[in-house]
Amino acid sequence: xxxxxxxxxxxxxxxxxxxxxxxxxxxxxxxxxxxxxxxxxxxxxxxxxxxxxxxxxxxxxxxxxxxxxxxxxxxxxxxxxxxxxxxxxxxxxxxxxxxxxxxxxxxxxxxxxxxxxxxxxxxxxxxxxxxxxxxxxxxxxxxxxxxxxxxxxxxxxxxxxxxxxxxxxxxxxxxxxxxxxxxxxxxxxxxxxxxxxxxxxxxxxxxx
Length: 208
Prior knowledge:
Blueprint: E1 15-18, H1 29-39, E2 43-49, H2 58-71, E3 75-83, H3 94-99, E4 102-106, H4 114-124, E5 132-133, H5 138-143, H6 149-161, E6 165-169, H7 177-185, E7 190-193
Parallel strand pairs: 1-2, 2-3, 3-4, 4-5, 5-6, 6-7
Helix pairs in contact: 6-7
């Protein structure tokens, strides 16, 4: 069972997408947890950037999370954000995918090829460890690419089948209402994530 199912009542109330100073964030795990408690945020997921070849010690990151769990009355999840590669695999070691609570994926640097994008997306959605699609359609928007309703329904049906969440990303105001409506038609579940990189961006969810 995917971790998010344990906390599904908090999918739109927690903050499910946070980066720390282990990569390109500006604050520590402890900093974010303290503010989350102060704001009354019930859950925080640390989805640190990863690669197959890391330039930091991931075990130290996990140690910080374990320490925070002892110090705060807060649901704290370990996670990672892995980029999709052109073959549909993720740029992360299997050991990390298996170890963290909440692995998510995103398209970052990727060829400007819509067919390859679709093939890779369909493949990554079959990955049994993947929990959520982070800042969905951001790559398409940047490349001025568009998916048809039929293509989106195929994607969302696969997400629903494999229990993959669609992130409502506050930072980028994504996905579009069209995507949201089609995802709802396919019974896809949504998760709130702000792609937080600094304390000022950690705020209460806008959802009731």
